[in-house]
Amino acid sequence: MPGDDRDPVAANRANWDERARVHPETDHYDVQGFLDGESTLRSVERERVDPDGRSLCHLMCHIGLDTLSWARAGAETVGVDFSPVAVEAARDLRDRAGIDPEAARFVEADVTDAGAVADAVDREFDAVVATYGVFCWLPELHDFFETVASLLRPGGEALFVDDHPVAAAFDGDPPRYRYPYLDPVELRIDDGETYATEDADLDANVTYQYHRPLSAHVTAAADAGLRVTELAEFPVAEWQRFEWLEREGEWYVQPDGDERSPDLPLLFALSVEKPA
């Protein structure tokens, strides 16, 4: 049954429970490719986090393919998600892939509740990651970064890769400024579809999403006692944000000679560390 769509967290959890039932069977997630040995990690995160022999916590892990890819790359991983259906799907994929449960644990917890996450994982980590489809689902940035800080050992690092909030303020063809950038916005969205397939018709069709300026992310990290080591911006997207973007390797890029979004940042990577 769909959750209470008046409660943002409950509504989003109900929606992601349904997505977690659908997504493992979609071409978008290419589970068979993963089971055959392919990694779901992209160059941005691979270049910034060395997993070999390190402990790593993957927040908002969904069905766990990235978590399991980190484990294959040599990390001792724990994936955290607020959807119990996603957690069970991740465990199933781990077992199907023949990955040691001690190398890839999955736990259910809300990443904005530092105490609940700490109780669920019961350890500190060398690295924390959260990538692609992260910040738009968080009602409170400060609570999230407090969770990150609580998970890191002194000297540990965290990496966040996500849609650039500047790009999220634009829509249309050519792109026009549609959503406020500097003022935080909560959006209530009624949509029974999912990005992974056109065939789904979700019953839990109400979600709540959030837009904030890039400065809010950096400030929330600093307020949690984390030190920013890099803020990188990229003209590529993980998904086809605008219709004219073309797939090139692992990214969607602007075609040569197309000036509909000149110099518009589409992706950012924020690296932080916990002082020793």
TrEMBL record:
Domain of life: Archaea
Source organism: Halobaculum roseum
Protein name: Class I SAM-dependent methyltransferase
Residue intervals of the Methyltransferase domain: 60-156
E.C. no: 2.1.1.222, 2.1.1.64
Keywords noted in UniProt: Methyltransferase, Transferase
Annotated PANTHER family: TRANS-ACONITATE 2-METHYLTRANSFERASE, TRANS-ACONITATE 2-METHYLTRANSFERASE-RELATED
Keyword Transferase applies: yes
GO terms, molecular function: 2-polyprenyl-6-hydroxyphenol methylase activity; 3-demethylubiquinol 3-O-methyltransferase activity
One GO biological process term: methylation
Keyword Hydrolase set for record: no
Residue spans crossing the bilayer: none
